[in-house]
Design brief:
- The structure holds 2 protein chains of 2 kinds.
- Chain A has 2 domains: about 1-220, P-loop containing nucleotide triphosphate hydrolases (Rossmann fold, 3-Layer(aba) Sandwich); about 230-305, Alpha-Beta Plaits, CATH 3.30.70.
- Chain A has 10 helices and 14 strands.
- Chain A has helices at about 45-55, 75-80, 95-105, 115-125, 140-150, 170-180, 220-225, 240-245, 275-280, 295-304; strands at about 1-15, 20-30, 35-40, 60-65, 70, 80-85, 155-160, 190-195, 205-210, 210-215, 230-235, 250-255, 260-265, 285-290.
- The mean pLDDT of chain A is about 90.
- Chain B is α/β, with parallel strands linked by helices.
- In chain B, about 65% of the residues lie in helices and about 5% in strands.
- The longest helix of chain B is centred in the middle third of the chain and has 30 residues, at about 170-200.
- Chain B is elongated.
- The two termini of chain B are about 30 Å apart.
- The chains are: A alpha/beta, B alpha/beta.
- The interface of A and B includes residues 54, 56, 85 and 90 of A.
Chain lengths: ~300, ~375
Amino acid sequence: MIAVKVDSVKKTFKAEKSVVTALQKITFDVSKGELFGLIGPDGAGKTTLFRILTTLMLADEGTATVDGFDVVRDYKEIRKRVGYMPGRFSLYQDLTVEENLSFFATLFNTSLEENYDLVKAIYQQIEPFKKRRAGALSGGMKQKLALSCALIHRPSVLFLDEPTTGVDAVSRKEFWELLRDLQKHQITIIVSTPYMDEASLCDRVALMQNGKIMEINSPKGITENFKKPLWAVRGENMYQLMQTLQASEAIDSCYPFGQYHHVTFTHAIPDSQATSELAKIAPVLEVQKISATIEDCFMELMRQ
Amino acid sequence: MKQFLFFIQKEFYHLLRDKRTLFILFGMPVVQIVIFGFALTNEVKNSRIAILDQSKDEVTASITQQLEASQYFDIEKNLQSEADIEPAFREGKIKLVIVFPSQFQSTLLHTNTAPIQLIADATDPNVANTLTNYASAIILDYQNNIRGNQDFPYMIQTEMRMLYNPQMKGSYNFVPGVMAMVLMLVCAMMTSISIVREKEIGTMEVILVSPMVPLRVVIAKMVPYLLLSMINIGSILVLSVFALDVPIQGSLLLLVFECFLFTITSLALGLFISSITNSQQTAMLISLMGMFLPTIMFSGFMFPVENMPLPLQIISNVVPAKWFYYIVKAVMIKGLGFFSIWKETMILAGMTTVLMLISIKKFKTRLE
């Protein structure tokens, strides 16, 4: 069953003298109960897409439905049944944790008690601080509280716009575990993130860039589509190494990834010769064959 | 309904937990009334003057005494020669110099007429005018005394009566002005800021994506400030009656009703501002520049509207505070009833309705 359907949605904004295209004819479906990720850098159009789906903006062209309701015609119906956590959402700093939750519960004509089982896993973590003002919570706690607020009315579709931006690594991990937990309740979740490593935690992801979806697939499917052999290379002077490799005809791509550069060759060569081929171009200390990550795929797609 | 009430409760939390703002909101009217009532006043009292008495006789001594005895003047010094006059003004303390020529008494007795010169510092024309008038009045008074019973054949006497404000107190004028200012500030500025803040922190997006009707959001935002304003009106009225002796001549009920109406006008203005701005700073600047300044300038509270050039007089008609100021003066000071101010009340009500309709229409169900 399809929970969210987006059909050639286009959206442009008028800047001072030019017209910026935020979304260029985007089409995709999300099935019920799916954890769907929108992955892309800032400015890819993720927030605009969220706003169109949550009925906050009107698309220039194309149609979209959420839970079978049209985002333009049936916006009132959609507003009753979706949960939305905007990117800059920061709760009411001067209200306590408890008051924030009951406010959002009342806003949707429900109460904390009614849907306690749904938010239990999250709320238990912040419950010891329920009398504390939201402004005094840590970043990770705030995001958990915000998630509870977005969930409190048992939405059928949950939209999370960059929920983990600015949150520490441990809290991010916990947050994603919570999202996976929520799937048990048959809630469709659409989440956007600029972090590529989070993509592998989704059921399916859409890689976005400049208002276009470059690829939609399961994380596994995306990395499997990366056909070329990929090599992790380390050298004495990493910066110089990258420049030399990028300048070489024999090298197709070279991107820095932490301690290594990820390198592909222009022409296929046997695995055993890779080290010597690289040594011909530049001095290298270590060469390893690796399998591609989502980020490698993203970089590759961006080049095309 | 529960949703709506909880929203109002939430607004009260915001208001009550921001102690500093709350203190300003409640303290401001009190401080303004006290400052305007006791410190800032355009009544002229105890002005420093100097006397250049070149005659030093019975008559000049007696006039000097009467000047000294009045509450308007304090004799700062006695000058010795005309050369001292300029330096005395230059020091800046002295506002008026009274010059008696030599042989004043004998001139008066023998020729039946004697001149006195009043020299005033006219850097502030109003003060100079008032001071010379006061001094002339005192001198005239003295002249009437020495004339005694010998009546002139023809004489026109002026008798003045100051209606509505017999003691000519400035507070009769500014209490309505302060009321307009405080209501404007509390309602227009605070409502616009509180709505725009929700836009800034992103909660407005969440509220929009909820079943709550936008109109209710707006009304819930207004309720706390409406209540706060009525408390402020109460404290201003209590202070002006008991501390400043400004009585409420007309019906209290009518006065409160008119205040209520103007509060709604200001709230509608605040709502309008919030619908055209996206940041708290802009909302505050627009409220201050666009609402507060016109209130002071065009309501007639500081500067009489009748004396302004015609274009400004026309502009002043669109300032709601002008009408409110007129109404409060009529009800509170003159003690007039509703039938004397129904036109102004209708204008105010009309402005409120239009503003309310525009801003509710502009309050979007979506982000753009």
